[in-house]
Write a structure and sequence with these properties.
Strand order of the largest sheet: 8-23-22-21-9-18-20-19
Shape: elongated
Strand content: 15-25%
Number of strands: 23
Largest sheet: 8 strands, mixed
Distance between the termini: 61 Å
Structural class: alpha/beta
């Protein structure tokens, strides 16, 4: 690895280029490949990659497992080495199974993520080509434009009104202007105006940079570990952590109490320790990490087939919980196929002059790529070979306009295009029948009326103004004054045919939609009404600017349309909705959506979004469509529901069985189950639990957002765990008191009954409905039936002796079958009461 270059910002550009052995023509593909081998991929080392070996070791990091392994080895050394080997084998196989499932899930997710890559425009072999950012190397020449995510640290070669948002490094919210100049060697990051840094993004403007440092040697790489540590926990991760605390407390108490009592009852200390630790293992849903990964990755794969790419796996939980979706209208509610339907003067008549001025502005401006300029430029060609561009004032979201200064036939002119109100605001005059008149109240009213009439028809309207004369060498915003209002540019984007249907479908799923747009309120209202979105309130950017947070919080629930808003106001709206308890999704694809994407619980963008939006997004849609999003929400809820099923069912069944075994061990003269039998039971019942990832989900579950509820999980575990324990104690009474079975047959009967109670618990508790009205998934049904048959056959195979199991008489099997049927009926009754009570809370 080459040493880190120092103080490159303080040396002249020719020397800097020489230092990385590059030039304005960039690198050849061959040289770039050599440097990739030297420097490595442009990725952060501090961002921990998935390690196969570490993932396997993680299966043993649970202290309970370590205690079990230690106690097993001690037991083997003291004489019972055969049983110790069996226990070690079960633990090892369980770990391998869990590791394999987790590894497969991780590989699947990495493959999905590779479908959505941030690419850069890099000069290779003398031409600019798009290359994935991880293949950038020092010496590469990169083209920058509005919305570009800067992939590495480097020096500015050329800049044109280039402003970069580098708040991730400096904390400054204002964008910093960048120039190709020299700065002092001891300059701080903020003062290095000739440098750009990995992880920052272009706010406005264009430029060229040469890469000086890549990967972990960048400034961002130096602090990436701290930044990663500051990543906020999702609700799902928080829930799993709290759930782990709950289980840890139960395990600790149970282990200590059972161990102490059994020692007091004069049972061998090592056997008591192994038994009590095995109970703790039995309560633990050991496959939770694997089940979570499998279920989430399985859901992500299904969603990918429907055009929804999950970039952050745990965001699926928030996706399933989302009850509010904020979106722009263009491309989601409308077709997104804007057409220039007119270039007209202030009276609404077609004007060649208006189109020519718009063409010049759109073609010559380089500050921000946008589809409106492309539409104007591609609508028809005009010969502008004799036009010389002098300067421009790039678009920004405060002014909402762009101005270009050009010279033609010796005359300098400034043409301004942008939001109607913004252009009209800087216009002092109006062209009326070829003559320039002062914009008086009458003309202003007539112009505004035409604008409103078009907006009411769903037509997007831009204003156009110009002035000729002498201008300073370098333009500033103050030069945009005393303009001559020339006319309007009219664009039409028809609503999508399925928008109304999709909105109704989202409403049925409990997701409210709010429009947040920079367009004027008239066109926003027209679009909302056209697609069937009920407008209960509208707030404009001007109103929002003078509105306090407290007032916004009061009005936010009744407001469905926000119009004429700037990027910071979008973020403020998202935060206000979250304050009111909503789980908010935001769908955006532009540089003006970045702050809102960052603030949302679920950030959603599209594949052709600007780089920084794609990098921030949790979810990327391969096409900008609410219908695709709606299907994704359904899959997200399915995935989350199946994850919760595992937790509900496994913890309640395990808790019931282990609580019973713990209590009964204090009554009987022997352990109701041996350590190896407990571990085998736990291992076998994990197979059908794994199949839950592909289980069917009831339609009523998909109709509303779901949330992680620790109180519900705890109550579920206790209620159905204790119900299971009641039947376990009844079984003990019948086996030991009525049938007077020996230790071997008692433990065999207990083992079989425990397996079957977990299986029927899985089938009954996987749905709120009566179990016979909800069809399980094919894999779940197969594994459950297979495990039931295998359990009965196991008693009559050589393996039975290995696990100290014995064949059970037919009379005992019939008795256990009767108890099982009674258990199912009892669960159905308790389940109905439980859910009725839960709904009232």
């Amino acid at each position: 690895m080459e040493p880190k270059m120092v103080s490159y910002w303080s040396i002249p550009l020719p020397e800097a280029l020489e230092a990385v052995q590059s030039g304005m023509e960039g690198l050849s593909s061959t040289e770039a490949a050599k440097r990739l081998n030297i420097y490595g991929e442009n990725a952060l080392k501090t961002k921990e990659k998935y390690s196969t070996f570490r993932a396997f070791l993680n299966q043993f990091k649970n202290p309970i497992i370590l205690i079990l392994l230690f106690a097993t080895i001690v037991s083997g050394l003291t004489g019972d080495w055969f049983d110790a080997q069996i226990i070690l084998l079960i633990v090892l196989i369980s770990a391998i199974l869990s590791f394999y499932q987790e590894y497969s899930a991780n590989q699947a997710i990495e493959k999905l993520k590779s479908n959505v890559q941030v690419k850069c425009s890099v000069k290779r072999d003398g031409s600019f080509v798009d290359i994935a950012s991880q293949y950038i190397v020092p010496g590469d020449i990169i083209q920058l434009s509005t919305g570009s995510l800067i992939p590495a640290d480097g020096l500015i070669l050329v800049s044109d009104d280039l402003f970069v948002n580098q708040s991730v490094l400096t904390g400054e919210s204002m964008a910093s202007e960048k120039h190709a100049n020299l700065v002092e060697r001891d300059s701080s990051l903020e003062e290095r105006s000739n440098c750009v840094f990995m992880g920052t993004s272009v706010f406005i403007g264009t430029g060229l940079m040469v890469v000086m440092e890549s990967g972990s040697r960048t400034e961002y790489g130096n602090i990436a570990e701290q930044l990663t540590a500051l990543m906020p926990e999702t609700e799902f991760e928080r829930g799993v952590r709290h759930f782990g605390y709950l289980l840890s407390q139960i395990m600790l108490i149970l282990t200590l109490v059972v161990f102490a009592i059994n020692v007091l009852l004069s049972k061998p200390a090592i056997d008591a320790l192994l038994f009590s630790v095995a109970l703790a293992v039995g309560i633990t849903p050991q496959l939770l990490p694997a089940i979570t990964s499998i279920t989430l990755s399985s859901g992500a794969r299904v969603m990918a087939k429907n055009g929804v790419i999950i970039r952050r796996l745990n965001s699926i939980e928030n996706f399933g919980s989302m009850d509010t979706l904020c979106t722009d209208k263009t491309g989601t509610l409308t077709e997104g196929d804007l057409q220039l339907s007119g270039a007209v003067d202030w009276k609404g008549e077609e004007s060649e002059e208006v189109f020519r001025l718009a063409y010049l502005n759109a073609t010559l401006q380089k500050g921000m790529k946008n589809n409106l300029d492309e539409i104007i430029h591609n609508s028809r060609k005009i010969n502008i070979e004799n036009v010389e561009k002098l300067d421009e004032i790039s678009f920004d979201f405060t002014r909402r306009r762009v101005s270009v200064l050009y010279r033609e036939d010796g005359i300098s002119s400034l043409v301004t295009k942008g939001a109607f109100s913004s252009v009209l605001e800087v216009s002092k005059y109006v062209t009326v029948e070829g003559k320039i008149q002062v914009k008086d109240a009458v003309l202003t009213a007539a112009i505004e009326k035409r604008y409103k009439d078009w907006s009411d028809q769903g037509i997007r309207v831009l204003g156009l103004a110009y002035k000729a004369g002498s201008f300073p060498a370098s333009l500033s915003v103050s030069d945009e004054r005393d303009m001559i209002f020339t006319g309007f540019l009219l664009f039409y984007d028809p609503p999508k045919v399925d928008s109304a249907t999709t909105l109704a479908e989202l409403k049925r799923k409990g997701v409210g939609v709010r429009i947040i747009t920079g367009d004027n309120k008239f066109i926003a209202l027209h679009t909302a009404e056209t697609v069937g979105l009920k407008v209960t309130g509208i707030i404009t950017g001007k109103e929002l600017a003078v509105m306090s947070d407290e007032v916004l919080w009061k009005k936010i629930e009744e407001t469905t349309v926000f119009a004429e808003v700037d990027p910071n106001q979008k973020e403020r709206i998202i935060i206000a909705l979250k304050k009111k308890g909503h789980v908010v999704g935001y769908m955006g694809d532009g540089i003006n959506d970045v702050t809102a994407l960052h603030a949302a619980d679920v950030s959603i963008t599209v594949d052709n979004a600007v780089d920084v939006a794609k990098e921030l997004a949790d979810i990327v849609l391969m096409q900008k469509s609410l219908a695709v999003l709606s299907r994704g929400i359904e899959e997200g809820r399915t995935t989350f529901s199946n994850t919760l099923k595992y937790i509900w069912v496994t913890t309640s069944a395990n808790f019931g069985n282990m609580f019973s075994v713990a209590g009964i061990s204090m009554i009987l003269p022997f352990f109701p189950l041996l350590t190896k039998q407990i571990l085998l039971l736990n291992f076998m019942t994990d197979f059908p639990a794994l199949a839950l990832s592909s289980d069917n989900v009831d339609n009523d579950v998909l109709k509303s957002p779901q949330k992680w509820d620790m109180r519900f999980i705890r109550n579920f575990m206790l209620t159905f765990g204790l119900l299971s324990s009641v039947f376990d104690y009844v079984t003990t009474f019948l086996l030991f008191t009525i049938f007077r079975e020996s230790q071997g047959q008692f433990q065999s009967g207990w083992f079989v009954f425990s397996i079957f109670t977990e299986l029927v618990t899985l089938m009954v508790m996987r749905t709120k409905k009566p179990f016979y009205l909800s069809k399980p998934g094919k894999m779940l049904a197969f594994f459950s039936v297979f495990l039931g048959i295998f359990t009965l056959i196991l008693l009559y195979t050589p393996l039975a002796k290995v696990f100290s199991l014995q064949p059970i008489p037919l009379s005992i099997l019939l008795m256990l079958g009767g108890l099982l049927i009674l258990y199912v009926f009892s669960m159905e009754i308790i389940k109905k009461i439980f859910y009725q009570h839960a709904q009232k809370m």
